[in-house]
Amino acid sequence: MQTNCEDPVGGFECMMAALLLRRDKKSTAAHLKSDLNRTDNSSGVRQLQELLDSVLNPEKPPADTEALDWCKCLIAGEEGFEEFCKTVRSYDNATLCGLVWTANFVAYRCRTCGISPCMSLCAECFNNGDHTGHDFNMFRSQAGGACDCGDSNVMRETGFCRRHRLRTGENVPSVPRDLLLMSEMVLPRFIICIIQYLRDGYTEPDTSAERDLQKVLQQLEPQITFLEELTKMGGAMRTVLTKILTNQQTFKDLSMGQEENVFAKKNYENYLSALKNSGLVSVEEKAQTGAAEPTRGSETGEDQDGQSIGQRKRVKLSSSTKDPSIMDSLKHKCFLEELLFWTIKYEFPQKMVTFLLNMLPDQDYKITFTKTFVQHYAFIMKTLMKSQESDTMSNRIVHISVQLFSNEDLARHVTEECQLLDIMVTVLLYMMESCLIKSELQDEENSRHVVVNCSEALLKNNTYWPLVSDFINILSHQSVAKKFLEDHSLLMLWMSFVSFFQGMNLNKRELSEHVEFESQTYYAAFAAELEACAQPMWGLLTHCKVKETQEYTKTVVRYCLETLQIWFDAIGFVDELAPNQVTFHLPLHRYYAMFLSKAVKCQGLDLESLLPDQEMLMRIMVHPLQIQASLSEIHSNMWVRNGLQIKGQAMTYVQSHFCNSMIDPDIFLLQVCASRLDPDYFISSVFERFKVVDLLTMASVHQNTALDGEQERPMLEGALTFLVILSSLRIHLGMADDEILRAEMVSQLCMNDRTHSSLLDLIPENPNPKSGIVPGSCSFEEMLSAVADFKAPVFELGGSMQQGMYTPKAEVWEKEFDPIMVILRTVYRRDVQSAMDRYSAFLKQSGMHTTGNPWPPYKERTPLHPCYKGLDRLLHCKTLHIVIFTLLYKIWLDHSNMSEHVLCMVLYLIELGLDNQVEEDKGDEVRPSEHCHDSWFPGTNLLSNLHHVINYVRVRVPETAPEVKREREPPASTSAEASNFGQAQVFSLVAERRRKFQEIINRSSTEASQAVRPKSSSTRWVPPGTPPQLVTEILEIHESMLSLLIKLHQKLSAKQNSLSATWLEDMDANPNRHAHGDGITAIERILTKAATRSHQSKRSIQEICGKVFPPVAPKKNSPTAKKTMDKEERRQRARERQQKLLAEFASRQKSFMETAMDVESPDTEAAMDLGASEVKESEVLYDCVICGQSGPSTEDRPTGLVVLLQASSVLGHRCKSDEAKKLPTTDEERIYPADTCGAAHDVRLALMQSFFKDSSCLQSVSIGWDGGVYVQTCGHTLHIDCHKSYMESLRNDQVMQGFSVDKGEFTCPLCRQFANSVLPCRPGRSTEVVSWHMPSNKKTSVLVKEVEDLQEQLGFFPTESNLSKEMELVIKDIKNTTQRKYMDYGKNPGSPDNDFLFMYSVARTNLELELVHRGGNLCSGGASGAAKRSCLNQLFHVLAMHMRLYSIDSAYNPWTRLTQVAPSRDNCLDDERPEVPMLFRDCPSLLIIFVLTMPQPLRKEHFICLVRMLYNLQYTQALAALSAKFSPEERQAWSTSGTLKKVMEISPSLPYCCFVLYPRALGYLYHPIICCPVRLLLLFQEFSGLAGCLGLLDPAPQPSNPMYSASCLDWTVSAFDLMSQWCSEVTGLADTQTLLVQDLQWASPHLLHLPDNYNTIFQYYHKKACTACKKVPKDPALCLVCGTFVCLKGLCCKQHGICECVWHSQHCGAATGIFLLINASVIIIIRGHRFCLWGSVYLDAHGEEDRDLRRGKPLFLCVERYRVLEQQWVSHTFDHINKRWGPHYNGL
Ligand SMILES: [Zn+2]
Ligand SMILES: [Zn+2]
Ligand SMILES: [Zn+2]
Ligand SMILES: [Zn+2]
Ligand SMILES: [Zn+2]
Ligand SMILES: [Zn+2]
Ligand SMILES: [Zn+2]
Ligand SMILES: [Zn+2]
Fold first, then answer.
1. Cα 279 from Cα 294, distance rounded (Å)
2. What distance in angstroms lies between residue 99's CA and the mean position of ligand 1's atoms?
3. What is the pLDDT of residues 275-305, one digit of tens each?
4. What pLDDT score was predicted for residue 279?
5. How many other CB atoms are there within 10 angstroms of residue 1350's CB atom?
6. pLDDT recorded at residue 573
7. Bridge-partner residues for 1207, per DSSP?
8. In the prediction, which pLDDT does 1448 show?
9. Helical spans, DSSP H, in 464-584
């Protein structure tokens, strides 16, 4: 307590501080504040410092919040912190929202309003702004973000919300000086205190450090939260904080610690060592040591354990151009800098991040913070790479960086002032350098190229993405991108970065063994190329679109070529590829290609000026071509030993997200090469790469050293298809963006109908922006409506739910279907077939082509851009023509491995050649004619070569070939051509290509220094294996391409002379007529084109057609040839046959079911005949669906109905009102469950139980409204013993489809409907029915007596038999179906009274449900679909058998009291409680009890007697209820006026129940028993109809006058006496009024009424707290029956091992639940132990679901779907209609 102080003043102040500490904080604060406001405030300042010294002591644990309380008080002054906050907030001058959110927050993005693609809005700002008609979506934040409202750098002002549009800042008064004075003085101390805690808590992460870091952060939480609170006070406070955080002087003063504070010194040391350990030095220190060596130290340490990660040795680059100052040094000059340093060091704690981001609306802060962030960029990367939680950290980094770099001004500012670009590129380079390995491409030993290792964590986990995404983000700003493109050293650096990916993930073809382990590194490789290489490329390309930017493109192209040259040298590539290798990653090629394309297309540059020499072009062509050949190899199963992953690569390469960054640039580059290189060279290279050179011989037999037999055909098809694609694709060769978009769209739609979103996903993003807001281009939506028709979503009953689909318009099929584009874009091979199937279906339907299978249509191409004209020379070169000729010849002769597809592609190439003529190249020097195959054709023009006749060809064949024998005789004819066959007709593609190569090399070798190269090539290309014995043979041909075409025409049409000599004249000139058709059409079209374009061809055609051909060689029938030719056709036919079979089977099954249904209820059938009073004597027969036998159900071998028992609360959820309850969407709205049928009955029973004898109560009501058991059947019957063995077989079956056999579940063997029990059928004859119709003329009183006697009969116990056993079993099943609590309503659980009540209530439940299924009315429903499912007849029988086991105590038999006037017994004698008075009893329940307990079968007259007596009671009850509702005056009037009749007149609306409901219930009971087709009438008619039917009235129709319900009364004793007796029972009882009024009328059950817009639900419920756990659930769900809000899957609300959703389904729906998953917009159904995803009732504007709200587009209620859902719920058909059920294990 005593300080050792000499200074009296100091001593005094010490005492003061101690004093102050003891004083109440508030008054101290007030006191200090006034001191500080004086002009001389030095003493105040001193006092404050002293106080803070003792309060803010970092040696105290941070958990001690005393210091925090002090700070709050000091800052706030006398008014208190809350009040202070409010005051400061009133000076908020911020014009930005700036709200910061973390992961999982729901935010919005509007593409219409956004300038930056990263723009986002908070829900409040979004809803308060006007975005009607905009392209916006809602999304769930992944990394966190901040609201941009009010920031015109990022979004258009029109999108600002009302609050931020007003620019509130301008009218806010300026802040009074003294308000924040204390803050300015206290906060610096507070912040340094936090920093000291952070320094002190930091330990190097070696062992358990991670946990320590977390602990430090946890302890600091209150402090950081306080800082965050401060930022929320608005602009005024943020300004103060900014000043403090950025003030260098304060930092200098406080950072080292004052005076001799040992603690402060120590933790400053700690700070310095943390810096050092991060591989960083402060600038001063660096100046001292002068070396950058310390950084390397830590690196090598890391490398040693890093090497084990990849199997291959890492490579360290020795020389790197990076600037060490970027990587290694840091100096902190203000609090902000050190705070950020620690934020990074502690791996971005969420609270800190939020605090730092909350400050951003302050512009000064934003700039300083951005600079600080950039300064620490390298450090961030290093920390990220070491982090264990790199995913979380990545998100946090981006959360910050996206706020900084999305703003163009800011990005440009830091680019100019802080070298942002250099830093980013260097950091990226440095990062990738950490995982380099030696490339094995081409030359495994001597390669000097290095590539990234895709199996390293950095690539596998995508750790680099935050940095790459920052880079892409800043490149999107034009000013920044320009800086990048102008900086050559930066470009060089970037190209070397890109080259790290060139050739990565090399695949080597496995030739012998299947690969042991399928590496999945290809994911990493494709992702890396797309994100790290292609995305920045597309970013740069957007700024190279106009003439003015030509220079940029030129520079990029130059560096690309330079880097490519370096690459070729490094891998040691000369001219031959190392065999069996392929890499899909050639980013350098693709950069080059795309910049070339842009240069020509948009910048008007001359292609020639950007191209390298021929030699370089030849090299550039090799790798992309190898990929194309490999694609074909992979699809020809040549890479099977490499596993499935290689197919994955081939598919990814062409997939929509990758294609325009991969295959498209590759094809384009090949097209460029083809347009410049010698076409003969190019064509021969293609066939050589595809390994089909050996195949291209005219001999019938050949050797192939490179391919297996079965690979030849697919490889040949691949090569030809590739050539067709190459020469017809125009994506980068002249198509406009709109045309490309259209073509993409058409090809996707042709493959399949698509939903809007899947189409959007399938259209490549570049160069087509999908948003469609780019000026001048056609939008996605416009284009879509131009090419496609919308098919609205439909729900196929019993089938799946269709979504809204787009399908091609007819004219698109007719004119735009492009098979080539489809082939290019298909990921799955089956899609090509699907497109062709759809195409032929269209042709058939429109009558354009009805016979056989059409061929892919030929499509004319847009003209080539002049720069690429050279491409057409490909079609006009001798090499190609020889190939074509050879193939036509081989196809004609049915050589092996020729297919329809080959012919199709050949014809395609011919037609392309005819349509794309080359102007005669006169400039070309006269070619030296020593070409080895020059004598084949005279020139290069296809048109003139077509009719050129080839007479002899020399081939080399094996000795065993058929030609050898045949042609052994000396050649007979010696024409001019034949004489020099020695060299003329030899055709060798390989030799040709090599010769051409040599030629080019020789030409350019004069300039090129390396002349040695070609040598290596010739030695390497030696085919393996011993060459077979070949002999040279000469074939006599005498054909031209035209003659071969005509012969093929005959062959295809199987007609001799199929083309007459004059057919050309007969052809009509309309080419459209011939656009669609098969091969015959295609040949005719080609011949016509040739004839119209060349006279010579025309003459030649006429000549050939004029000749009479000898019959075509019968080779057509050769079985092997047939096999290959028609493979496709056969496949097609097989498909058709299969479909037909399936359809047939389905219809057979259906008709079987229908017939089965007809006999389902034999009683019905029999009863139908009763009208004719013709009775069949025959016994009822049942078909067993298992053994197929037909027979009666007997005591010994009973038959049963397949039934599904299910507990149901549908009835209990009915309400009085017919309108569905509204789902609450605000806090004010609520749903009250009290008015439901279930609740009302519960209340009534409880009330009765409080007054009356329990057993009597249990006979006076029905239960089963909630949790009743509903029984339904598919109508199929089976022997019960057959069923047992069926169940046994299911139990042994391992493959179970969602149902559990142990619970007795199975599917009907015939119709596959879900079922869980078997209801035994009553044996017997239909004649029994007769007794019902015997005329009755006994008097009512006699009948009453008879009934009484019958009731007295003791229940007779049926003899034990198989049947009775089964009946008891099914009763057990019924009981087990529902929960215990729905059966025990009595006071003594388990008493027989409970059981009795439950059993007759089952009957009631099923009757009531039948009524509901008929639409709540006997007149409207009729025999609905549900009627087929009901099995009331059999059910009643089983129930009656069971009920006979109970006997009613005759003393209490209600029948006596219903029919006799008896002196009232004194009930109270033996029981404290009386019996339930008759007027309180439920008549339908009584009726059911009577019917079920009387001996079976019941006679009709007795039944009618029951009905009549009960009707009297019901009528009296109605009157009593009416009187109970009367006012006293009315009651008085009634009792005086007298007759009942009069009452009816005054009150014509006598309670509805009396008219309709009661007889209706009776009608139902009556109906199943006697199966009389009830004539149904509406409402009142229903009553009279029923009354007549039931014998209450004279059945003869009375056309007269209104009918009174009173006329149905029939009393056997004095009505007055009886009624008085009933009334006397209730007089004097409490609650009489309540019990007298019985609710009988319930509206049909409804699900909750849902709002139209899903957003209304989502906004309210996604952040609503659960009432049970008070937390906002991660997966909120909503019960659509009652509106209860539950935590799906939440452990928080789990009880007894059951999650809340399942628990609720048990209580709300007796194990059936319908839940809407709020965050997914999807509905799930829970049924018992199973659940299924039902789908969504909310669809977007395109009729599509949006599961998980991924797209976030506005969703609207689909009323039809919701109705279907409700209908399935009410009809209990979830089990039948939904197929994909799975167990939920109580975990939902
Ligand atoms: Zn906002
Ligand atoms: Zn706003
Ligand atoms: Zn908008
Ligand atoms: Zn059977
Ligand atoms: Zn069935
Ligand atoms: Zn519910
Ligand atoms: Zn909950
Ligand atoms: Zn919960």
1. 7
2. 5
3. 877 766 655 555 555 443 433 333 333 344 4
4. 66
5. 16
6. 86
7. 1269
8. 62
9. 465-475, 478-486, 488-499, 521-528, 535-541, 550-571
Say which DSSP state 1200 is in.
E
Tokens at 330, concatenated: 């840091």
pLDDT score, position 1551: 38
- The bound ligand whose nearest atom lies closest to the alpha carbon of 115 is 3
Ligand 8 center to 1674 CA (angstroms): 9
Q: Does 1164 have pLDDT greater than 80?
A: no
Q: Which residues contact 1761 (CB under 8 A, 6 or more apart)?
A: 793, 795, 801, 1735, 1736, 1737, 1739
Expressed in angstroms and rounded, the spacing between residue 97 Cα and the centre of ligand 1 is: 5
pTM across the whole model: 0.79
What is the chain's mean pLDDT, rounded?
A: 78
- Judged by its nearest atom, the ligand closest to the C-alpha of residue 1200 is 4
Ion ligand 7, residues whose Cβ is below 5 A away: 1666, 1668-1669, 1687, 1693, 1700
> By the 8 A CB rule, do 335 and 381 touch?
no
Cα(1387)–Cα(1389) distance, integer angstroms? 6
Compute the distance from residue 1741 Cα to the ligand 6 centre, in Å: 30
Query: pLDDT-based confidence at 1549, cuts 50/70/90?
Result: very low
- In Å, how far are 522, 544, 651, 718 from 635, measured between CA atoms? 18, 38, 10, 9
Residue with tokens 């015959």: 1080
Q: Give the pLDDT mean for 931-936.
A: 54
Residue 590 phi/psi, 5-degree rounding, is: -75, -35
- Of the listed ligands, the closest to the CA of 1274 is 5
Tally of helices (H runs) and strands (E runs) in the chain = 80, 28
1615-1671 pLDDT tens trace: 888 888 888 888 777 777 778 777 767 888 999 999 999 999 999 999 899 998 999
* Neighbour tally for 1432: CB within 10 Å: 22
* Closest to 223 in 3D by CA, of 85, 65, 41, 347: 65
Reported confidence tier of residue 509, pLDDT bands at 50, 70, 90: very high
**Residues within 5 Å of ion ligand 3 by Cβ?**
110, 112-113, 131, 134, 159
Which position has the token pair 């587009």?
1753
Q: Which residues surround ligand 5, an ion (CB under 5 A)?
A: 1274, 1276, 1308, 1310-1311
Helix axes 1079-1093, 900-915, angle to 10 degrees: 20
Cα-to-centroid distance, 1687 and ligand 7 (Å): 4
- Alpha-carbon gap, residue 1638 to 1552, rounded angstroms: 11
Of 257-266, 1623-1632, 1757-1766, the range with the lowest mean pLDDT is: 257-266
The rounded radius of gyration (Å) of the Cα atoms in the chain is 45
Q: Which of 96, 94, 72 is nearest to 84 (CA)?
A: 72
Ligand 3 center from residue 657 Cα (angstroms): 27
CA angle (851, 854, 855) in 5-degree steps: 155
**CA of 129 relative to ligand 3 center, distance in Å:** 8
CA dist list (Å): 1346 to 835, 1463, 1505, 1512, 1614: 78, 22, 10, 18, 19
Ligand in nearest proximity to the CA of 1307 = 5
pLDDT, tens digit (0-9, with 9 covering 90-100), for 845-879: 888 877 778 899 998 888 888 889 999 999 998 88
pLDDT digit string, tens, across residues 1247-1280: 998 888 888 888 888 898 999 999 999 889 999 9
Q: Give the strand pairing for 581-582 and 507-508.
A: antiparallel
Helix (H) or strand (E) holding 900: helix 900-915
Quick check: 1564 and 1407 in contact, CB under 8 A? yes
What is residue 767's predicted lDDT score, i.e. its pLDDT? Answer: 59
Contact call for residues 298 and 279 (beta carbons, < 8 A): yes
In whole angstroms, what is the distance from residue 1263 CA to residue 1249 CA?
A: 14
Closest-approaching ligand to the CA atom of 159: 3
